[in-house]
Amino acid sequence: DHLSQSSMSMYMRCPRQWAAKYLDERPTRPGGALVKGSAVDKAAELNWVQKRTSAHDLPTEEAQEIAEGAFRDKVDEAGGRDEVDWNNEGFAGALDSTMRLTKVHMADHAPLHTPSATQVYLERRLRDGRRVIGYVDAIAQDGTVIDVKTGSRKMSQSDADQDLQASAYGWLL
To answer: In this structure, what DSSP letter does residue 78 have?
Structure first.
């Protein structure tokens, strides 16, 4: 009943994968990258929620505790460790990576902005009535849109220029 940036990106990458997920509703195993990204995102979100009133970031150790709890919850939601596709990283390696990524976020990214809003739901309707939706991680007080990324490498400028997410969020905003 709706389109999202992630579903549109999947369709552009592989229409068969999109059809299996969204039309045939075949269950898919979550990947370790999704588990890690969700956990770091949860720590960032809770940091920003409290920062809106305190103007200070959480201690890194507290953010890491939040990330670890979110990581473990996501694994439990998937049905346990064996139900996640760890892509040769394994549970322990993915958890260690989550802790490192959270530390980097808290040291290098969180201090740069104080959000005016977090987990902002965006929606627009197309002419045919379908909805396009998205969730922005945070919007800074200066209007900067913040989206936490946890890829294994820094996104190149070329990849960023071709990525649908920034354009979709801009259109939704």
So the answer is: H
Element (H, E) at 137: strand 131-140
Spatial contact of 75 and 35, defined as CB atoms under 8 Å apart = yes
Overall pTM > 0.90: no
Residue type for position 20: A
Residues 6+ apart with CB under 8 A from 36: 71, 94, 97, 98, 101, 150
pLDDT digits (tens, 9 = 90+) for 51-74: 999 999 999 999 999 999 999 999
Contact between 118 and 138 (Cβ < 8 Å): yes
- Cβ-based neighbour number of residue 138 at 10 Å: 24
**Model pLDDT, residue 28:** 82
Return the C-alpha torsion angle 155, 74, 4, 153, nearest 10: 10
Measured CA to CA, the distance from residue 62 to residue 106 in angstroms comes to 10
The H or E element containing residue 6 is helix 5-13
Q: Residues 137, 142, 147, CA angle at the centre, nearest 5°?
A: 20
Token pair for 163: 């990525």
Percent helix / strand / coil, the chain, rounded to 5: 60, 15, 25
